[in-house]
Amino acid sequence: MYALLAWTWTRAAAQYPVSMLLLSLATAVVGALDAVGIMLLFAHTPRIAGFTAAEVLFLYGTSALAFGISDILLGGAERLGQHVREGTLDALLVRPVSPLVQIATEDFSPRRFGKLLPAALVLGLALPRLDAPWTAGRVAMVPLMVACGTVIFAGLWVLAASLQFVLVDSHGATKSLTYGGAFLTQYPLTLFARDFVRGVTFAVPLAFVNWQPSLYVLDRPDPLGLPDAARFAAPAVAAVVCAVAAVAWRTGLRHYRSTGS
Amino acid sequence: MGVFPWVTWFAFRRHTAYPLGSAAEALTNTVFGFIRASVLIGLWRARPHLGGYDQADAVTFCFLTQALIGPVQIFGGMELTQRIRSGDVAIDLYRPAGLQGWWLADDLGRAAGSLALRGGPPMVAGALVFPFHWPGPGGLAAFAAALALGVLVSFGLRYLMALAVFWLHDDRGLNAVALVMSLFFSGMIVPLVAFPGTLGTVARALPWAAQIQVPADVFLGKHSGAGLAGALAFQAMWAAALIGAGHLLTRAARRRLVIHGG
């Protein structure tokens, strides 16, 4: 059903081919700006917070790839507040398809794939430049961390959307969680204050998107001194995030009362 | 008193009508401020005094630019665009007041409202956590002038983008290009003082520098005397050039407009 709705919206977007192409291209360039920013920082110094350009670009690539895929799949959910405010959520509820699928596929457009282009490109360029002790386990960890990161971000999208059932105006704030999380994970967490790192490890588990797995791939010590098992905890963390998001979404939907009297 | 002050006043009221939504935006601006500040501190630890900034300057720059996202509307966009697409602009053109003047008045009200609700939180939060650089009363006055000119430049750019819809009919492609230019060349991604070589020289001469980088430099007291006058003149020149171009384009657009239907 998801695929059918996504395909319908894609065909709608393809009615304006030039606009679609330009938008995909522009989305790719906006995504690449963060990578350009990182390279500008490294134009001045070979290392920032103990990490080289290739290592930070590796973090950027894995984070942006995971976030990009999750954005394609579920990014549309952030418009839930708008639907609640305008009363259009009621129309979604009477249709025999999950409202989450309907919201996520709404306005689905191939332009969102533009975000993946710079992410994949940078990751492809950064990987051979890494000074990592490559073993089979480390090679396998790279696709695994992108997959787990995608699932964690997907859970965060749904969690942020669920919050809008209660706080209709909260979209401006939940962007900190989604877009802020995507921005944060592009950089090594050694840059940030220790309490902040604890927060994004234990409260909002952004550290498991790519930071903890990267410590394993790059063979670095953990600044928080967590046990080695934490480096392989991403799949479990992803499962927990999704479970919490699912409960939050169901609770929100059950307590939803339409606007008006 | 003409109609324009009233337009500004009502735009201000409209943009301060939802304080909770603005507070939510301010919170996100603040969170991004902390992330960006930590990254910049990392760079300035490796390279103290880069581009004439010390670490406190870099942190202040970061939170100040986060506070200015709303007033300068760095992500672009203008309500006028939708009105041109839908044809409502015909009503605007029917009014006995100039189109550009009307929307400039509206935008000044929007900027003031946004500054009132979204300007404070990032600055206060940043100053509480990091060493900060505050200007004296004279510097604050100069900053107010620089900020006002920055808003004018921002309006000039966005108004041109909006009027382009008369010819293009779809604004999204153009808006996306404008967003790239404005994010990168305003200093939002990396401060323009940290741009290397020629790229830095070019970036500092473009109108986007007049929106964020110049007001921030004035706030940090990087200009004094003739330098300050030069910086404000640079902004004023871009504001005049862009608003002048907008004026000419408005005249061309009037001839271009075809109202469909009755």
UniProtKB/TrEMBL annotation, chain A:
Q: Which residues cross the membrane?
A: 21-42, 48-69, 142-168, 229-249
Q: Which UniProt keywords apply?
A: Membrane, Transmembrane, Transmembrane helix
The reply on keyword Transmembrane helix is yes
Instruction: Give the top-rank taxon of the lineage listed in the UniProt record for this protein.
Output: Bacteria
Protein name, as recorded: ABC transporter permease
Query: From which source organism is this entry?
Result: Actinomadura yumaensis
Automatic annotation (TrEMBL), chain B:
Q: Where are the transmembrane segments?
A: 140-161, 173-194, 228-249
Q: State the superkingdom.
A: Bacteria
> What keyword terms does UniProt attach to this protein?
Membrane, Transmembrane, Transmembrane helix
Query: Do you know which InterPro entries this protein is assigned to?
Result: ABC-2_transporter-like
Q: Does the keyword Transmembrane helix apply?
A: yes
Query: What's the protein here called?
Result: ABC transporter permease
